[in-house]
Amino acid sequence: MKACLFLALAGLVIPSSLEAGTLTGIVRAEGKPEAEQALSGGKYDTRKYKFVERINYAELQDFVVYVEGSLSSKPALPEKPVVVDTRRILQKGAVFTPHVLPVRVGTTVEWPNNDDIFHNVFSISETKTFDLELYKHPVIKSVTFDKAGRVDAFCSIHAKMHCIILVLENPFFSTTDEKGRYTITNVPPGTYKLKAWHERLPSQVKEVVVPESGDVKVDFMLGIKNLPKY
Predict the structure, then answer these.
(1) Domain boundaries, position 156
(2) How many domains does the chain have?
(3) What is the DSSP-derived secondary structure letter of residue 113?
(4) Which of the listed residues 168, 197, 214 is the one where a domain comes to its end?
């Protein structure tokens, strides 16, 4: 009897847990063709300018792909216990790692300092303003992000230390790997706006329909070549 009851309950639970799809694809970037040509010779190859940093669009990293919105009106997966999420941005070699960190609203981010020198983490972003003051190991300071938006954080004594926390409204997001690939799993079935983001490029949004199961492939090409001229 117990075995039959277990199987019956399992039959009710398993289909609902399978009602979710996977978003996958590749994100690439491209610049203006005339800009690429301008950088290929002339004064840019002289001693004066050859050390000037140039953007190689084919090598850009830190893309984020995410489903826009709070999904409050969308179908939802079975409820799970609420877990307070904690993420970390490491300070090592006077660099923040990772440079871009996507998190969900309500996430706490810790900034451990693994250098032998003092660092400071602060932000004057509209989404979240804070100042963790100077500290080093073993002290670990943190910030909880309670509002969606972009937060740029810096160190007040090291000019090149900069990172971005992208605070999102739902858990359906992914960063790309070294080949530009992303995967977002367990997305409830429905129609969504899927956004590809990079800090230096205009974002791209595509409408996607997620089935009850299976993969949906959505590729993006971010660039500035089609921006209007003024």
Answers:
(1) 83-168
(2) 2
(3) B
(4) 168
pLDDT in tens, 89-128: 999 999 999 999 999 999 999 999 999 999 999 999 999 9
Residue 212 domain-assigned?
yes
Residue 172 burial (CB < 10 Å; 0-12/13-18/19+)?
Answer: buried
Among candidate residues 228, 223, 226, the one with its CA nearest the CA of residue 55: 223
Domain contains 219: yes
pLDDT of residue 31: 78
Exposed / middle / buried, residue 160 (Cβ in 10 Å: 0-12, 13-18, 19+): exposed
Strands (E), 31-128: 64-67, 86-88, 90-91, 96-97, 100-104, 108-112, 119-124
Q: Which residues pair with 123 in a beta bridge?
A: 130
Pairwise CA distance, residues 9 & 28, whole Å: 45
Spans of the chain below 70 pLDDT: 1-18, 33-53, 72-84, 225-230
pTM summary value: 0.81
Other C-beta atoms lying within 10 Å of the C-beta of residue 4? 8
The CA distances from residue 205 to 76, 106, 158, 186, 229, in Å, are 22, 25, 35, 20, 21
101 within some domain: yes
Give the full edge-to-edge strand order of the sheet including 100-104: 100-104, 158-168, 149-155, 119-124, 129-135
